[in-house]
Amino acid sequence: MKKEQIVALLLSSVFAYRTIRWLITIYQTSMEYHYIRMETILHFGLHLAGIAALIQYFATAYKRSQFLRAYLVYLIVIISVDLIISSLILTTSLEESNRTARLTAYVIELVEIILSCLLLSFLKNNRTPQLSITKNENGEPVSHYIPASLLQRFFNRVLDIALLGYVAYANYDWWRYVVESMQYEIPYGVIFLTHPFLLYVVLIIYYVVMEYAFRTSFGKIITGTTIIRAAGGYPGLGAIIARTFCRFLPANSISFFFYDDERGWQDRLSGTGVVEERYLYQPDFIE
Questions:
Q1: 246 and 270 Cβ atoms separated by less than 8 Å
Q2: Residue 132: predicted pLDDT
Q3: Of 87, 73, 43, 76, which is closest to residue 175 (Cα–Cα)?
Q4: What DSSP designation does 126 have?
Q5: Is residue 129 within 8 Å of residue 20, measured between CB atoms?
Q6: What number of other Cβ atoms are within 10 A of residue 257's Cβ?
Q7: What is the pLDDT at residue 92?
């Protein structure tokens, strides 16, 4: 059995499990509240989009995986948040039966996120930076990367923030439960003041993990771009960390307009850049 077929089988298993889980959740919610909550509808709608991406992966003989990769990033982010919430809930006073159920769900989600990371890591190898091949004065071929446009960079940021914002919205009730449970041990004022700090921590972890481990982010997958070193090749952990912290510099977002090559401070100070990418089976662009 080929690697692609094994990956497809594992992906099918993940989707089958999540489909059954969501159908049970929808049934239980409708029986308890006599209506289906908006968060549940949104989650299930995104799950159906993931199934469509999986069908595309099968239909193209395991070649086109752009939307499937985007869904896996979404899955990794939302399960990571679920794991954090579950860890906090397990530290609160729960009945033994509820604790056992929560612990079981915790283990299942841990296996699920590990599997999703492995699958995304495999699928990233099907992509490579797009090269543009031109000829110099002597008629010799010269290749160079195609930098992402300002519009692509803008959508990268918007889509990443939209993903994290959606995850925060979808888990609001659980976060509120955790905060209310912790008020007996930690003053509410302290918890309230830590919220902005937690948002920055989440952003830092998201970009460091995604750009270092998978050379991409949710937004970059959708726009077909990837991150590289300015000198070529993929950046190391130090460059990714520097790039991530540079995102929070004042005026970093408008620094892209200061230079002709449309590279902002987060690119220049970290020695990185964002370029277009392609599937391995696609040829480079020849001018």
A1: yes
A2: 80
A3: 87
A4: T
A5: no
A6: 9
A7: 65
pLDDT by residue (tens digit) across 113-136?
999 999 999 998 888 888 887 777
C-alpha to C-alpha distances, 53 to 11, 56, 64, 176, 210, nearest whole angstrom? 11, 5, 9, 33, 20
- As a whole number of angstroms, the distance between CA 161 and CA 165 comes to 6
Higher pLDDT, 220 or 26: 220
What are 142's strand-pairing partners?
134
**Token pair in block for residue 260:** 């002709």
C-alpha span between 255 and 243 (Å, rounded): 14
Tell me how far CA of residue 147 lies from CA of 77, 131, 179, in angstroms.
27, 10, 44
What's the rounded Cα separation, in Å, for the pair 216 and 219?
Answer: 8
Q: What would the two tokens of residue 127 be?
A: 């992509």
Q: Is 232 exposed, middle or buried (0-12, 13-18, 19+ CB in 10 A)?
A: exposed
Residue type, 38: M
Beta-bridge partner residues of 279: 127
Based on the number of CB atoms within 10 Å of its own CB, is 116 exposed (0-12), middle (13-18) or buried (19 or more)? buried
The tokens for 114 are: 């590990």
